[in-house]
Design a protein that fits this description.
By secondary structure, the chain is of the alpha+beta class. Among the domains are: 151 residues, Jelly Rolls (Sandwich), CATH 2.60.120; 117 residues, CBS-domain (Roll); 149 residues, Four Helix Bundle (Hemerythrin (Met), subunit A) (Up-down Bundle). The protein contains 24 helices and 21 strands. The strands form six sheets. The protein has a five-stranded antiparallel sheet with strand order 1-2-9-4-7. Strands 3-8-5-6 form a four-stranded antiparallel sheet. Strands 18-17-16-19 form a four-stranded mixed sheet, sandwiched between helices. A hairpin with a 2-residue loop joins strand 11 and strand 12. It is globular and about 80 Å long. The chain starts with 7 loop residues before the first strand and ends with a helix. The relative contact order is 0.06.
Amino acid sequence: MSQSDDVHTVAPEMAISFFKGILPFNGLDDATLSRIARHCRVDFYPKGTRLLTAGETDITHLYLIQRGGVKAFIEDDQGEITLKDFRGEGAYIGALAIIRETPANLNIETVEDTFCFLLPREIFLELVEQKTGFATYYLKSFSEKIVNTAYNELRHHKASQRSGDDLYLFSVRVGDLVKTLRKVASDLTIQQAAATMAELRVGSLLIHDPADDNNIVGIITDRDLRGKVVAAGMDYHQPVKAIMSGPVESVLSQTLCFDVLLKMMSTGIHHLAVERRGQVIGVVTSHDIMLLQGHSPYYLFKEIRSQQEISGLYDLAKKIPEVIRSLINEGAKAGNITQMIAILNDHILERMLTLLEIELGAPPVPYCWLLMGSEGRREQTFKTDQDNAILYADPKNEKEKRAAEDYFKGFARKAIDHLVHCGYPLCPGEIMATNPKWCQPLSVWKGYFTRWITTPDPQELLHSTIFFDFRSGFGEGALARELRKHLNAEAKRQDIFLFHLARQCLSTRVPLSFFKNFIVEKDGEHRNHLDIKQKGLTPFVNFARVLSLKYAINETNTLARLKSLHDGEFLDRKLWAAATDAYELQMQQRLIHQLAQMEEGVLPDNHINPGQLSDLERRMLKEAFAVIERFYSVLDKMYPAA
């Protein structure tokens, strides 16, 4: 079945209501919506229906998914799926083929019972020709799909073989997991709510205001029943609002399941409400997400959180590369991967330092374990060593000062040793908490930054930039925020400091020749290779750092800094978009290169051979490097040489 003959007329007001809830139709005027609604039809397709066949089906209508979902895929000559995409409610099917006047370019099959609105191709083409904003939306959408296809090709050829089903985590929107909204009124008794959960066989219920069932005020889970009612001997005739948690954390229905997983792991919240068009449509749980993937990072996360012995963390930390390998093989982009690495590393650190505090006793003064460099930016890869420090509150007297020095000396020594056993190598430059210079009270740290900023020696500045990307890894985050506030205030007053930092950025040569060929090592161990970290990624890191210090942006992650600069109107939209894509591409190349080395039993590095890349990869990498020249143009105008 390629196109259904059993289409049904739909009431215009129903079609108009649907169109007003999806892009780009919601930008059309009421008269236009009324006109196209009269030509619209609706059809039902059972699960497993083949809607379109690539290269064969002539498309007579634009499909708009009202309910359900489809998978779009390409098969190679052996019948293996080489590209897979999942589309849910509000998504379109067939637009590109209609505009290009070609048969379907993808196979489309329903993954569940699906209803689609069908808009005649003539009406759709008329809108594209007459409505500029309407056409722009599809042009942008097609461009993004082309970029994503390029990423998929890169991963397909460079990463190890993977199952097509594993791509769910990075393709499915969380709204597609939610089937039914389970909710009860807050004045229902605990016993009645428990009975409802048992009857429905669910582990949670949303709680709504008795006067307004759309006003979700809380949530209860089976854990609440065990811990707050049974264990505490609570009267189960009390209203369920007595044990609910609220307000309910939520995510938008269009959020990727991987991003939902990140939120769950970052917050420790296992049940999230899912919203669509301002209304809660259901709940997604960590169990729902784990079912999408055979080797979910969530399993490792739970093991880390429950570990009671520091030595038990050693083997768990060494499992992180395996999880990351799976993420790369399953289709994750670089930004997804580095976020996951940072979250898992942070949880290893948090659990280890928590257990170490129990072992050594409470510290004499509040402290913050600082992470710097790539750890501070949340940009670690397979190859990362330790860059850390201890920042503690200023002691009130000499006795407290000596106690703090003694405590943190022993604390740092044990912590660094445990991190080494977890697989995090020592920093060759000794930028670690065991170095007395980097284990100091707040006032001393403020002094460091004041000196670096007010008397910027070019050579010392080169070595100190790693400290400007610090963030709190554990402990009193307020201390890190106070230090960041001091840093921003000092940097804002010292333009000469930013001048030196900018000119330092400009000293790194773009790794492209005059004729746009790659500049590689001419001899030595890395002959015909280039260091993608130092030559390609570092200019992005440096550019984002300079502008973030100039405009007092607190983000430390490079992509987050670039986005904040754009949001604050300090960075042109086109440059921001180009920089984001270019940075992601290079980080992807770096991760895939390191993964290949690890699978060959080689210690990972950052030296890639452009000659071993495909034509597509080389072209995209050259375009990414060309963005560096645009950075340099911005900095040169902002901080011209004398």
